[in-house]
Design goal:
The protein has about 350 residues and is α+β, with helices and mostly antiparallel strands. It has one domain: BirA Bifunctional Protein, domain 2, CATH 3.30.930. Helix content is about 35%, strand content about 20%. The chain is built from nine helices and 14 strands. The strands form three sheets. Strands 1, 5, 6, 9, 10, 11, 12, 13 and 14 form a nine-stranded mixed beta sheet that branches. It has a three-stranded antiparallel beta sheet with strand order 2-4-3, with no helix packed on it. β7 and β8 form a beta hairpin. α3 crosses α9. The longest helix has 27 residues. It is globular. The protein starts with 9 loop residues before the first helix and ends in a 31-residue tail after the last helix.
């Protein structure tokens, strides 16, 4: 047996089997949580007219043919979000799904082209309720994995502890010495002002970086490695320019009701108080697709059916949690392939029995 042994080699598989057994127990525990709390498990179609409209997400495209042979383009979804919100518009009030999702150009210790998102939605409930959900899910995953703490790359986090809550503006000030609010208003951002602050921090920049690009660089280089150490962190109140599908905070229109959950420096979940204004959502999609065209030379279609459904959708909050990453942290796995039953093959790569996996970019 060599370092190029496939994942199904009996010795390779035997090393991975304990992680996979824990994955099953964790999934069952999380399903129990949602069932006890009155949620319905749903199954969104994977084939969608739009895979999502974020500038830096890359989708897998395919064709669907009618019985007569007429073809049209569809995509494998990057999230079940559009479909789940249509179900809220249809009348569901508490739903969850363990969704198989697909993202191209993503492969690394924490990334895989096909993975599982645990998404759940609560109609007529605030996104603070999702924060409580996240704490319960972390504890449940740890109990099912039969461990006491999360671990990744030498960092540990207590999943039973109350998460630290930190606004994005507080995080920029604490970990990067940047006054983020000095560079934004409710309707505008100041790229030059943010660039001037970044030059003092040593964060690298490109000549064509937008304000959002610079925000992302600071998050990745200065902030995210500091989050979820010792105990989980909830990073909340993202600038409205980073709102995605979240609504503005009524009491401060500079920020959106969005949070992300971190443990051991790893992003685990992304949650919103959902935007239901179709006009504003269309505007955001168009801005994102213009940016995608500028950087990547392509656009994805907008799901007009989804925008129509927003008119009927009740106020709601929703979260997407990376289930594979949760299993990794709960079991101490080093790479995502260790917790996947059948990793996606890639030419010239495989999983070796020692756990020292080939290095992919990212």
């Amino acid at each position: 047996m060599t370092d190029t042994s496939p994942w199904w080699d009996p010795d390779v598989y035997a090393d991975r089997r304990p992680f996979l057994a824990a994955r099953g127990r964790i999934g069952a525990k999380l399903r129990e949580f949602f069932t006890v709390n009155g949620f319905v498990e749903v199954e969104a179609a994977i084939l969608q007219v739009s895979p999502g409209n974020e500038a830096h997400l890359h989708a897998f495209a395919t064709e669907i043919e009618t019985p007569g042979g007429e073809a049209s383009r569809l995509f494998l979804h990057t999230s079940p979000e559009f479909a789940c919100k249509k179900l809220l518009a249809a009348g569901e009030t508490r739903i969850f799904e363990f969704a198989r999702v697909f993202r191209n150009r993503e492969r690394g210790a924490l990334h895989h082209p096909e993975f599982t998102l645990l998404e759940w939605y609560r109609a007529n409930e605030p996104y603070e309720t999702l924060m409580a959900d996240c704490r319960a899910l972390l504890a449940g995953a740890t109990e099912a994995a039969e461990t006491r703490q999360f671990s990744f790359r030498g960092q540990i986090s207590d999943p039973y502890a109350e998460p630290t809550r930190l606004t994005v503006a507080e995080a920029f000030e604490r970990f990067a010495g940047i006054d983020l609010f000095a560079t934004l208003t409710a309707d505008e951002v100041d790229p030059e002002g943010l660039a001037a602050q970044l030059r003092r921090t040593g964060v690298r920049m490109a000549a064509d970086d937008t304000w959002s690009d610079m925000v992302s660089r600071v998050l990745v280089e200065k902030i995210e490695p500091q989050l979820g150490l010792g105990r989980p962190t909830i990073l909340y109140e993202y600038p409205v320019a980073e709102a995605a599908l979240a609504r503005r905070k009524p009491s401060d229109e500079r920020v959106a009701e969005r949070f992300e959950l971190y443990a051991c420096g790893v992003e685990l979940a992304n949650a919103f108080c959902e935007l239901t204004d179709a006009v504003e959502q269309r505007r955001r999609f168009e801005v994102e697709m213009a940016e995608k065209a500028r950087i990547h030379g392509r656009r994805y279609p907008i799901d007009e059916d989804f925008l129509s459904a927003l008119a009927l959708m009740p106020p709601a909050s929703g979260s997407a949690l990376g289930f594979d990453r949760l299993v990794m942290l709960a079991t101490g796995a080093a790479r995502i392939e260790q917790v996947l039953w059948t990793p996606v093959a890639e030419r010239g790569t495989s999983i070796n029995p020692t756990g020292r996996l080939p290095t992919w970019p990212g």
